[in-house]
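W.,

You were right to be curious about this one. When I first looked at the sequence I had no strong expectations either way, so I just let the prediction run and decided to look at it fresh. Below is the sequence, 464 residues in total, followed by the output.
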Amino acid sequence: MRPLILIAALVWAGCAADTEPQPPPSNRFVYPTGIVHRDVPGAPEGSNGALYVASANFDKCFDTGAVTALDLDALGLPALGQASEEPLHITDLKVSSDAYVQIESFAGEMDLWTPADGSAPRLFVPTRAENNYLHAIDIEGATGLKCAQGGEARNCILGALSLTQNVAGSTEGVPRAPSPLGVSVAVDAENKPEVWVTHVEAADSPLGSAGSFRTYVVRVPGDELDVSSEDFLPLTGAGLAIGGAHATAIGSRYAYVSGRSYVANEVTQSASFLLRLIDRDDTSRVLETDLRSIYFTLEARDLALGTSPGEGKERLYIAARAPDTLLVVDIESAQGLRPRVSVVDSVPLPDGATSVQVIPRPGLADLVAVTCTTAGVVALYDAALGQIISQVDDVGLQPFGITVDTRANAARLYVSNFGDGRVAVIDIPDLGTAQDARLVAHLGARQGRDERRGTSTCSQEGEP
């Protein structure tokens, strides 16, 4: 990741050579990544809810990244299942002044915690620039955003939690979690939030030594927003090879961790595992599944829990790469000391398998949506048929994150297009015939692009 950051910094130097502040735009997205949909309590039946989108500011054309909240009912989207023949292009996002906050650049995934007591929901988004922050943002009403860690005005960087700086109990530079990317939120036995964060760059020890690398999954108390060395759960030791982690999915007893290639001393290292389990009851227990010996693929990216296939079992859907594959994995004895892993299906995917979203269907097997970043499509897998049943093309450039609004027997998907700065809207009018899924709209202006450099022009398309 570091070479990319250096390149981005050089581009930024050319885009913002003067010393005038360059805040990110509030009326469009800039390299969007994390995305979350939320039903708004008290909204009328048929409401589209609210959408929250993280802008990664990948080229550093602006001073910071951002999180933007959209009132979807204000945008003129068609009713679900009633779209026109051609997709709409909605560029006026109608962002109110309190529906936008600044975060650090290079945002990753985003997840939402909704407290059981009815208090304000909270968004969590990690960022990989500078101090490797985990940002927490409270939601007021439908789209009001407020920095949960203090901040100043609309700037949530001030007071944000660093996963590499001033970690209580750290020695010789560890533990720390450089380049945090994945985030998922669970609730513990006391109904308190656990925020699980992965990182894609290994930490050397001592700091700056370029040796003795370590990797972790960080479990952050989401209500306290503070960490100590005890919250960094090592992925190494006890005979386990060092490995980078991309994402987590939180089961009833175990946190499931996908393994990907990682960066150590500015060199990309191959993934050493595809799936490991961390015992939430005793986090010193990290279990190697040896999934690669069952099905060989270079690395894994996102993963998600599906509908249980039977008593005591949990099902995982894992997006793997090289070859790009959707792995369907069952975990037997998922609440026991010795869970067992089996691959029940492996289905080829278009290039660049990235994010996984499970769409439960009443009375039917899971429907699974996967963004395929290189191919620029969203693939839909039907667990009842064991195959890809639909591929939505023309979604946009480099689809990354995906979130879903499910209503009875229908669903609307929202997909962040990292490469063109828009959000794609996909309707599935009947989950029983998901092959009829279709693109119905794009939200936001397309970001300008310099095709010679493969970077943005620091403006939206059509601007000078």
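Here's what jumped out at me. The longest strand covers residues 340-348. And, maybe more interesting for your project: The longest helix spans residues 2-15.

Coffee later to discuss?

I.
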